[in-house]
Amino acid sequence: MASQTPQPTLISVLTCPQCGAAEALDMPTDSCQWFHQCGTCGTVLRPRAGDCCVFCSYGSVACPPVQAGEGCCGS
Fold first, then answer.
1. How is the chain split into domains, by residue range?
2. What does the alpha-carbon distance between residue 40 and residue 22 come to, in Å, rounded to a whole number?
3. What is the C-alpha separation between 20 and 42, in angstroms, rounded?
4. Element housing 57 (H / E)
5. Full pLDDT tens readout for the chain, 75 residues
6. Which pLDDT belongs to residue 75?
7. What is the model's pTM?
8. Which residues touch 56 (CB under 8 Å, ≥6 apart)?
9. Which of 1, 30, 26 is closest to 13 using CA atoms?
10. Alpha-carbon distances of 22 from 27, 30, 35, 43, 54, rounded to whole Å
11. Which pLDDT belongs to residue 13?
């Protein structure tokens, strides 16, 4: 029996570092998401230094490419 690669988790909970609000969001599988505006306080989230996307910086789950061990969003 061949081993199967686990499917990535496609929903991540982003937590705003400014106000602490959390939103469950679908992650894109074909691109990075570099910006997200908090629906509660309006803060625009950007990746932290060394991260390529807001999910890697503020999400409960890293982006799909990182989960697959491919590097952050193709890098």
1. 11-69
2. 9
3. 12
4. helix 54-58
5. 455 667 889 999 999 999 999 999 999 887 789 999 999 999 999 999 989 899 999 999 999 888 888 777 655
6. 54
7. 0.83
8. 47, 62, 63, 66, 72
9. 26
10. 15, 23, 15, 13, 13
11. 98
Residues found in the chain? 75
Residue 26 is encoded by which pair of tokens? 């679908």
Structure tokens at 11: 């929903």
The set of residues, in sequence order, having a beta carbon less than 8 Å from that of 8 and lying 6+ positions away, is 29, 64, 67, 68
Instruction: Look up residue 53 and give its two tokens.
Output: 């996307």
Beta-carbon contacts of residue 75 (< 8 Å; ≥ 6 apart): 52
Query: What is residue 66's three-state secondary structure?
Result: helix
One-letter identity of residue 12 = S
